Amino acid sequence: MFFLAERDKDGYYIRDGILYRKERILGHEIQQLCLPRSRRSQAIRLAHETYGGHLAAKKTKARLKLSFSWTTIAADVQNACENVTYVKNVDVQLSMTVCQLHLYLVMK
């Protein structure tokens, strides 16, 4: 993406050697850090597990885009939310994702 910043394309720019992107979200200009591949899974996990709950892919992506940008953000978030670690819940007697288990326990 640095080559896009050097050409002043798609809102990418470099400040102090760090790659950013300007994007308009809900009428506001947001400056997003272009997150390196090595930090993406950690950012997705933190955005997904917000406020003691587990957000769906759409809300997780929206939350991430307020601060970060990378080209495969939508696919990465969708994949991460679909492949949350499975756990065994003895009370329910079936396997479910961590998100489903959390929802079950909250609604119980």
Question: What is the H/E order?
Answer: HEEEHHEHEEH
> Which of globular, elongated, flat, extended, rod-shaped describes the shape?
globular
* Low-confidence blocks of residues: 86-96
Return the domain count: 1
Q: How much of the polypeptide forms β-strand, as a percent range? A: 25-35%
Instruction: Output the radius of gyration.
Output: 17 Å
In the sheet with the most strands, the strands line up as: 1-2-3-4
CATH architecture identity: Orthogonal Bundle
What CATH calls the topology is: Endonuclease III, domain 1
The main pleated sheet reads as: 4 strands, mixed
- Mean pLDDT, to the nearest integer, reads 77
Give the structural class: alpha+beta
Indicate the CATH class.
Answer: Mainly Alpha
The N- to C-terminal Cα distance equals: 47 Å
Provide a brief overview of the structure.
With 108 residues, this protein is an alpha+beta fold. It has helices spanning 2-6, 37-48, 57-65, 73-82, 98-107, and strands at residues 12-15, 18-25, 28-34, 68-69, 86-89, 94-97.
Structure report:
The structure is a single chain. The chain has 108 residues and is of the alpha+beta class. It has one domain: Orthogonal Bundle (Endonuclease III, domain 1), CATH 1.10.340. It is 43% helix and 27% strand. It is built from 5 helices and 6 strands. A 4-stranded mixed sheet has the order 1-2-3-4. A two-stranded antiparallel ribbon has the order 5-6. Helix 2 crosses helix 3, helix 2 crosses helix 4 and helix 3 packs across helix 4. The radius of gyration is 17 Å and the shape is globular. The N and C termini lie far apart (47 Å). About 10% of the residues have low confidence.
